[in-house]
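User: Run a structure prediction on this.
Assistant: Running it now.
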Amino acid sequence: MLTREQIREIIEECRRIGVSGLENGRRATIPFIKIDILRSNLNFTGALGNSAIFINKNTYNMLSQYHSGWVANKTIAIKESLLLKPTIDIIGTIVHETGHAFNVAAKIANSEGNAYIFEIEVILKLLESGKLLSFDCDRQEVERYFQSRLTNYHMDTRNTYLATLVGQIVEEFGLQDDRKEQHDKKLTSSEETKERTSQAKVPSLRLLFFATPDNSQWKKENNLILSRVGY
């Protein structure tokens, strides 16, 4: 379980990384983010009932009348139940929602795909710097987290940079990627089919070129074929 102060610490790390920039060259100054811990699980946190939500302008316009402390594009609302989850899951959720704040600040599409990019890259940087160890999260915990998120990362199929990034963590952490395995099986099956088709055609050509029946007309035709194909 993380305290409000520890959540603040994670957000400040995200802000620092936002200024230094991501590997894709994107950088932005994320504004100070307010934290609103929702005591009731009945509060709206997205259409899918997420554990936390970044309060963008649309959400603010719809629901700010019930939450006087919210500031559009500068608030993350968190269900209290999130704090009972494993530490790496809490950190991942906070980083992801801060990723939406990064998207707005960087003036790029505030899509889930771009938030996933921020999430993955920031967690990798926190792991590399040793910051995650201060929260008792090691490489094995990160591996488990990425494995649990893999299906989500595959949802944005049009984001080529995200796809490359996902491929890198699958390789680096030895994740089980069912989608990649299915793709590889299809390629293998296709290659085997082509190979069988190619092998099936060879014997008939060899019979044509190298069989030698005693038929003068056949010899003439065979010699003509051989001369045209360069034999």
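The helical segments are 4-20, 57-63, 87-106, 112-129, 139-153, 160-173, 178-210, 216-229.
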